[in-house]
């Protein structure tokens, strides 16, 4: 299926869907944690399938939520939003849900760039790290989806841990919050507040991983800054190159429009700088990740 046309109307639909996702969480029928897990599962599933099979067949009607029972009850809610906004692709909707979820959990605000093509590959939690991996296995899983920096692995591990926790809607269970507490508790070996899994131990036993654990435990601002970048990187796997340029051009245009006439020349320079920066950022991403052409059409 072709990449969606991300015009003003499409962006309007995205913003309306964002509000509906926020209302979905506020209704307490579905948790932000579940939506975050769905966003993760989507990216790991699509990337894993592309790496395994070399191509990604696409179909809007077949792209449904088919995963474990924990996410099955999201089907009706997500489909309802999809019916209201049929032009939005499922991958865009899933990743928008992840961005909304992090914000609703009091986490950092993450920029969302739309434009993902639809996919017949359904989010499958079986593709997610399950907490049983040691350092090598954990790196292998992330490397397989082209996320290779240790910083990204450690930061995203906190999000995965939060997304996998017990049902926050149960009586007497405190509402989950996106913060650096995971790293704080990791360093308290005898706290008993977190279930100790092989992956938890891996983040402590590996010296490179541990360095980031210690940093994030001490500095939540540093964690938020890195997580925001890591989540954005993960969510943009599969995003066509044209979407980056479209977003950069839109930012540049807004910069010019919001500049007083007397300073319009400066505004044009700013717009040009934004586009040029985005170009080199994209080149850097392509060299760093070496994504397959089949995965990014």
From TrEMBL:
Top-level taxonomic group: Eukaryota
Keyword entries, A-Z: Membrane, Oxidoreductase, Peroxidase, Transmembrane, Transmembrane helix
GO BP annotation list: cellular response to oxidative stress; hydrogen peroxide catabolic process; response to reactive oxygen species
Protein name in the entry: L-ascorbate peroxidase 3, peroxisomal
GO cellular component: chloroplast
Species this chain originates from: Nicotiana attenuata
Keyword ATP-binding annotated: no
Residues passing through the membrane, by range: 265-283
Gene: APX3_1
Ranges for domain Plant heme peroxidase family profile: 72-254
Protein family membership: Belongs to the peroxidase family.
């Amino acid at each position: 299926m072709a990449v969606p046309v991300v015009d003003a109307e499409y962006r309007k639909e995205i913003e309306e869907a964002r509000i509906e996702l926020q209302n979905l969480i506020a209704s307490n029928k579905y948790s932000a944690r579940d939506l975050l897990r769905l966003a993760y599962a989507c990216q790991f599933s699509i990337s894993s399938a592309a790496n395994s099979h070399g191509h990604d067949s696409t179909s809007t009607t077949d792209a449904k939520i088919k995963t474990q029972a924990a996410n099955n009850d999201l089907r009706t809610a997500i489909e309802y939003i999809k019916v209201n906004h049929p032009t939005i692709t499922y991958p865009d909707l899933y990743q928008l849900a992840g961005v909304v979820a992090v914000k609703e959990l009091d986490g950092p605000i993450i920029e969302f760039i739309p434009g993902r093509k639809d996919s017949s590959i359904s989010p499958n939690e079986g593709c997610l790290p399950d907490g049983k991996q040691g350092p090598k296995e954990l790196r292998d899983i992330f490397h397989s989806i082209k996320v290779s920096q240790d910083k990204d692995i450690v930061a995203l591990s906190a999000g995965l841990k939060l997304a996998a926790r017990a049902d926050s809607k149960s009586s007497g269970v405190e509402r989950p919050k996106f913060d650096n507490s995971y790293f704080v508790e990791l360093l308290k070996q005898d706290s008993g507040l977190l279930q100790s899994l092989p992956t938890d131990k891996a983040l402590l036993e590996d010296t490179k991983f541990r360095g980031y654990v210690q940093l994030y435990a001490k500095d939540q601002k540093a964690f938020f800054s890195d997580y925001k970048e890591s989540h954005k990187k993960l969510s943009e796997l599969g995003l066509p190159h044209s979407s980056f340029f479209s977003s950069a051009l839109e930012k540049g245009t807004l910069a010019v429009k919001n500049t007083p006439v007397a300073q319009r020349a400066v505004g044009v320079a700013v717009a040009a700088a934004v586009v040029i920066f985005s170009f080199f950022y994209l080149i850097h991403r392509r060299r760093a990740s070496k994504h397959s052409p089949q995965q990014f059409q």
